[in-house]
Design brief:
heterodimer; A: mainly alpha; MetI-like fold; B: 217 residues; 0% strand; flat
Chain lengths: 220, 217
């Protein structure tokens, strides 16, 4: 490994790391929000809406993330949608992950026992309250592990953003590699770095999961 | 959108879709062999083999495929081996898919009732035959749905192979976008090809599940 090269490029790499984390957080937040809305919509009685949302999910899950980024970033301007690389990256990550999150929320809502909702209705709770205080808490317990899992998958997907020139870590590392002819070192460092990141995130995720579902474990 | 400009590119796209399918097929088949070995190692009962298998899964599920592909591409070059990009591409897909398939198989093996393995031992089956005749056939049946899922994920992941210069669906779409100055149409067309492949795979998967008598309930 070439220590002084890494040191010289440290500011750029740290900046790239910041962009990676920011894109990940913003993209996932967007994805969770859209995914939640899609899952709610899929539970609506309208069949047309259901069908439409099904198509949305199937398209986003059936095509590669890279292709979606290209459509958004390179194809967008043809229909007047001009996004910067980073904005396209965040929106792309949000749309892509929303398909997965919506399926997770849908499964979570399906896991809520019908009787609980009926009980809540019979004691006169408003639909909004039933959602926020009965359906959501229970759905989240079922959804926590797959959500954490999808968050980890998305942290790895941020690497793909480098292909549409989002200045995240991978992009900075490739710039360094090209400028200093240290391709091997750079890629090796990236591999180790992402492995550590995923390990840390999955450990943290497991802990969050345990805490979120602690009340289940303590039951007699 | 004017898809008429893509009329002449249709042949290239179909050809490229074939390359994507072939790459993914090679990746999943080679990954299956690897995954089975890793899974058997993880359940072997020998401490160091279990550790080794665990480390393999952790590393190759943890490192993003794009990083892995570039690593293989440059690593082999640094060693002075002039390996074609195709080897790096299939190698990357195989290593990554192997880790996921090992986990799928492990999950499926855990779902096989314990009594099955115990009965085989009680009947005096050798360890190899117990795996070959009793455990793996049942686990494979259980693992059909997640395997189909993995195949679909691999088809999508194979789009990253475009960065090492293989003329598969994504790369060809990029070339068409550059040739026609019509990126939107080119990428939407490429995306539709992926969608067609994956939806037919999902359909075939449903068929296979019904044939194997699972998920029918």
């Amino acid at each position: 490994m070439n220590g002084d090269v890494l040191l010289r490029y440290a500011p750029a790499l740290l900046g790239g790391f910041g962009v990676t984390i920011a894109c990940w957080a913003a993209g996932s937040a967007l994805g969770l929000a859209i995914g939640f809305a899609v899952a709610l919509g899929a539970g609506a009685p309208s069949r047309a809406l259901k069908g439409l949302l099904r198509v949305y999910v199937e398209i986003l899950r059936g095509t590669p993330f890279l292709m979606q980024l290209f459509i958004l970033y390179a194809g967008g301007p043809s229909i007047g949608l001009k996004l910067s690389a980073t904005a396209a990256g965040v929106v792309g990550l949000g749309l892509y992950s929303s398909a997965y999150f919506s399926e997770i929320f849908r499964a979570g809502f399906a896991a809520v026992p019908r009787g609980l909702i009926e009980a809540a209705m019979s004691v006169g709770m408003a639909p909004g309250d039933i959602l926020a205080r009965v359906r959501l808490p229970i759905a989240l317990v079922a959804a926590a592990p797959p959500i954490v899992n999808t968050l980890i998958v998305m942290s790895k997907e941020t690497v793909v953003l480098s292909i549409i020139t989002v200045p995240e870590l991978m992009y900075q590392m490739q710039t360094m590699a090209a400028e200093t002819f240290t391709a091997f070192d750079a890629i090796f460092a990236m591999a180790v770095f992402y492995w550590c990141l995923v390990e840390v995130v999955s450990r943290l995720g497991r802990r969050v999961e345990d805490r979120a579902t602690a009340f289940l474990a303590s039951r007699p | 959108m004017r898809f008429s400009v893509l009329f002449h590119s249709f042949g290239y796209l179909t050809q490229a879709a074939g390359v994507t399918l072939a790459l993914s097929l090679a990746g999943i088949a080679l990954g299956f062999v690897l995954g089975t070995l890793v899974c058997v190692a993880r359940l072997s009962g020998r401490r160091w083999l279990e550790r080794l298998g665990g480390a393999y899964v952790s590393v190759f599920r943890g490192v993003p495929l794009l990083v892995l592909l570039l690593f293989l591409y440059y690593f082999l070059a640094t060693l002075g081996l002039d390996v074609p990009a195709l080897v790096a591409a299939i190698g990357g897909l195989r290593l990554s898919s192997g880790a996921y398939q090992a986990e799928i198989l492990r999950g499926a093996l855990n779902a096989v009732p314990r009594g099955q393995g115990e009965a085989a031992t009680a009947l005096g089956y050798a360890a190899f035959d117990r795996w070959r005749l009793i455990l793996l056939p049942q686990a494979l049946r259980i693992s059909i749905p997640p395997m189909i899922n993995e195949f679909i994920l691999l088809i999508k992941a194979s789009s990253l192979v475009s960065v090492v210069g293989i003329a598969e669906l994504t790369r060809v779409s990029m070339n068409i976008a550059a040739m026609t100055y019509r990126p939107l149409e080119a990428y939407v067309a490429g995306g539709l090809f992926y969608l067609a492949i994956n939806l037919s795979l999902a359909g075939l998967g449903g068929l296979a599940e019904r044939r194997a008598g699972i998920g029918a309930r």
